[in-house]
From TrEMBL:
This is Histidine--tRNA ligase. It catalyses: tRNA(His) + L-histidine + ATP = L-histidyl-tRNA(His) + AMP + diphosphate + H(+). HAMAP family: His_tRNA_synth (MF_00127). Homodimer. Residues 34-329 form the Aminoacyl-transfer RNA synthetases class-II family profile domain.
């Protein structure tokens, strides 16, 4: 029988990988808390309708990429491919409209069945921020600033570029949608198979097609900005003015779109050239029509998500944990006193390792392999004297320390 392996497109987080992951989450939470966000954690699976409604029954994500299954009760369930829909469902089912405005942040695993590649896995992880109940452009500015500050806190501010666009309001998008149908409809024989499917249901998705033939047609397609009404132009102008006032640089990218009807106004991506084709590290947009589409009250919404795996490939390695102090008993009679010393030091904030078996030499060898800095040896002589023998595992120097002085004597190793 072949050795068990992780499922294709999944990975284990250990050692430095785990530290990178934890550092990104901790950094995101620290920045989000400064912006007044509160935590939310939703289930990793929902009734499939949650995603079919929000992402569209015929979208690529729903039709090709979701992990959907029928449980023993006959219910169709789907592992979440993103967090926003689950948060919107929690808002509706939890009756949270009375608490608006809400600023929510979360993180966790997402699931999409797609071809694994650099920075893209079938089980991947995201951090997520959402603001509900604020229709004014101030929310757009604040969420964009949060994203910029988060990336800067990771040391990535100079390695990403903010691409910004407006999708306009519903009236503007409908006018533009019809213009795209009219334009691309004249080139049906030249469109890719995927773009032909998108032509009627979400023609804006054709604009971000990767097919070379499609891209040639896209170059001559109508411009969304030519179909923006006065309300949409004013909204986008205020978002840009706010970013300018905060010193957040951006480039307007008119081809940056979202294909679903509940998106409106601001859409953006922070992109990098460091990861090859998978250049987006954080993306978001305004989705004022989402909650109403799901059956809840009309509620403005805006948010972003960032892929932890992609960010982990870009950041500097976080500092390793503090080197441990190893507590080594000499003889069976020292096992309990050694346990007491280890417990006391841990409660005082020290990282402590214990050797579980073997003679003194084996335990010291294990401590060195684990990178411990000090070894505290405790035998009958030390117990009688109320001391420990401290050996520096780097220099091999030894000193005797009174038990009463442990915390102060080893303060430099805390």
């Amino acid at each position: 029988m072949a050795a068990l392996q992780p499922v294709r497109g999944t990975h284990d987080l250990l050692g430095e990988d785990a530290r990178r992951h934890a550092h990104i989450v901790a950094t995101f939470k620290a920045v989000a808390y400064r912006y007044g966000f509160q935590d939310i954690s939703t289930p990793i699976f929902e009734f499939s309708e949650v995603f079919h409604r929000t992402l569209g029954e015929t979208s690529d994500v729903v039709s090709k990429e979701t992990y959907t299954f029928t449980d023993r009760g006959g219910e169709s369930l789907t592992l979440r491919p993103e967090m926003t829909a689950g948060i919107a469902r929690a808002f509706i089912s939890g009756g949270l409209a009375k608490d608006l405005p809400l600023k929510l942040c979360g993180h966790g695993p997402m699931f999409r069945y797609e071809r694994p590649q650099k920075g893209r896995l079938r089980q991947f992880h995201q951090v997520d921020a959402e603001v509900l109940g604020v229709a004014e452009p101030q929310a757009d500015i604040e969420v964009l600033a949060l994203g910029a500050d988060f990336l800067a806190a990771l040391g990535l501010g100079a390695r990403v570029e903010l691409k910004l666009n407006t999708l306009g309001d519903s009236e503007s998008r409908q006018a533009y949608r019809q213009a795209l149908i009219d334009y691309f409809g004249a080139y049906r024989d030249r469109l890719s198979e995927d773009s032909l499917k998108r032509l009627e249901r979400n023609p804006m998705r054709i604009l971000d097609s990767k097919d070379e033939g499609d891209r040639e047609l896209v170059a001559g397609a109508p411009r969304l900005h030519d179909y923006l009404n006065a309300v949409s132009r004013d909204f986008f102008a205020k978002v840009r003015q706010g970013l300018d006032a905060l010193g957040i640089a951006y480039a307007v990218d008119e081809r940056l779109v979202r294909g679903l009807d509940y998106y409106s106004h601001t859409a953006w991506e922070f992109v990098t050239t460091d990861l090859g084709a998978q250049g987006t590290v954080l993306g978001g947009g305004r989705y004022d029509g989402l909650i109403a589409l799901m059956g809840g009250p009309a509620t403005a919404g805006i948010g972003f998500a960032a892929g932890i795996e992609r960010l982990a490939m870009m950041i500097e390695a976080p500092p390793a944990p503090a080197r441990a102090i190893a507590v080594v008993p000499i003889g069976a009679g020292a096992e309990v006193p050694a346990l007491q010393v280890a417990h006391r030091l841990r409660r005082a904030g020290f990282t402590v390792e214990q050797g579980y078996r073997g003679n003194v030499g084996k335990r010291l060898e294990r401590a060195s392999k684990q990178g411990a800095r000090l070894a505290l040896l405790i035998g009958d002589e030390e117990i009688a004297a109320g001391t420990v023998k401290a050996r520096d595992l780097d220099t091999r120097e030894e000193r005797v320390v009174a038990l009463a002085e442990l915390e102060t004597a080893f303060a430099a190793y805390r």
